[in-house]
Amino acid sequence: MKNDINQLIDALVLEERNTGFNPYISTRIMAAVENEHNKIVFLFSPFWKTAVVGLSMIAAVFTGMAAGNLYRSKNVSGDVVLMNDNRMENFGFYNELGNEIKTK
Amino acid sequence: MDEYELIQSILSGNQQDFKLLIKKYEANVFRTAIGFLHNKQDAEDITQDVFIKVYQSLSSFNGKAAFSTWLYRITVNSSLNFLRKKKRRGFWVALSELIQIPSKDKPGEIALTEKTEKAIIQQAIDDLPDKQRKAFVLSRYEELPHIQIAEIMKITEGAVEQLLHRAKINLKKILEKNLERP
Fold first, then answer.
1. Which of A16, A27, A41 to mutate: most B Cβ within 10 Å?
2. How confident is the model at residue B94 (pLDDT cuts 50, 70, 90)?
3. Which residue of B has its CA nearest to A22?
4. What confidence tier does B27 reach under pLDDT thresholds 50, 70, 90?
5. Interhelix angle for B117-126 vs A2-17, to 10°?
6. What is the pTM of this model?
7. How many CA atoms lie less than 13 Å away from A78 in the CB half-sphere?
8. For the residues A34-61, what does the mean pLDDT come to?
């Protein structure tokens, strides 16, 4: 029985080992490989490169606008806006000179 | 052109050289795959998948091991993954059939009567634990030396011998039970 089993296993292995395969399998694989290659080439084609650069620029502009709008949304009182800052430096001048020279 | 030069040539963009590599190893990949799958169509599909994977990841092949060792590893893993997916798909198909058509017959009995000796042996090989099955297929279908099997499976030569011994014992046990004759 044991020899019988070994023979059966050997026969199956031999039969499967000798199974012929499609002689054009290499052509089929090459076609599939080229197809995959073309997909990759398409992804990195000049069209997509330009599209990505263009979209990045648009995204950058919109990000800038959004950031700008965030800043503007803060409430700024009218007085501060209308304040003439030409003389603001003068305040500093007086504040820092606490011990002003007394004139007689 | 030796193997290293061939790989360098493919990597530098000579796609047609890849066909030479396929021609050199297609039979080995197919034989290994059929050892796991026992089906010509599936083995051809796996052969195609393996070579596509090889093409896509050829740049990551660092040459530490022989190219054939790397190729066998990809083949073994692809075949086992294919079987796992097929098993999962088979479960859902069987489940949907069970829900749609309630069978009056006992499926186990039908399966047993329809099983031929060949199918029983194939099933016995499939029922081996993964490591034993890998060692068995590489040794019997590809007739690789133990040292190369050890390299492919990243284990010692002694471990390969043990796996093959256990596979032989397990196969006998399963087949003695399933091939009992009146």
1. A16
2. low
3. B44
4. very high
5. 90
6. 0.70
7. 0
8. 83
Interface A–B counts its CB contacts (< 8 A) at: 73
Domains (range + CATH), chain B = 1-102 (1.10.1740.10), 104-182 (1.10.10.10)
CB contact under 8 A, B55 and A33: yes
Task: Locate the domains of chain A by residue range.
Answer: 1-44, 46-97
Q: Which is nearest to B56 in space by CA: B66, B65, B68, B48?
A: B48
In terms of Cβ atoms closer than 10 Å to its own Cβ (0-12, 13-18, 19+), residue B73 is: middle
Q: What is the pLDDT of residues B126-180, one digit of tens each?
A: 999 999 999 999 999 999 999 999 999 999 999 999 999 999 999 999 888 887 7
| Cβ distance of A21 and B47 shorter than 8 Å | yes
Task: Mark yes or no for CB contact A33/B52 under 8 Å.
Answer: yes
What is the Cα Rg of chain B in Å?
Answer: 20
Question: How many other CB atoms sit within 10 Å of the CB of residue B150?
Answer: 20
A93 band by pLDDT with thresholds 50, 70 and 90? low
Rounded-to-integer distance, Cα B124 and Cα A80, Å: 88
Do B7 and B61 meet the contact criterion of CB atoms below 8 Å apart? yes
A39 CB near a chain B CB, below 8 Å?
no
> Over 90: is that where the pLDDT of A91 sits?
no
Cα B103 to Cα B87: distance, rounded to the nearest angstrom: 21
Residues of B in contact with A16 (CB under 8 A): 34-35, 38, 141
d(CA A102, CA A93): 16
Q: Which two tokens stand for residue B2?
A: 């030796």
Is A19 part of the contact surface with chain B (CB cutoff 8 Å)?
yes
Helices (H), B101-156: 107-114, 117-126, 130-140, 146-153
A3 touches chain B (CB under 8 A): no
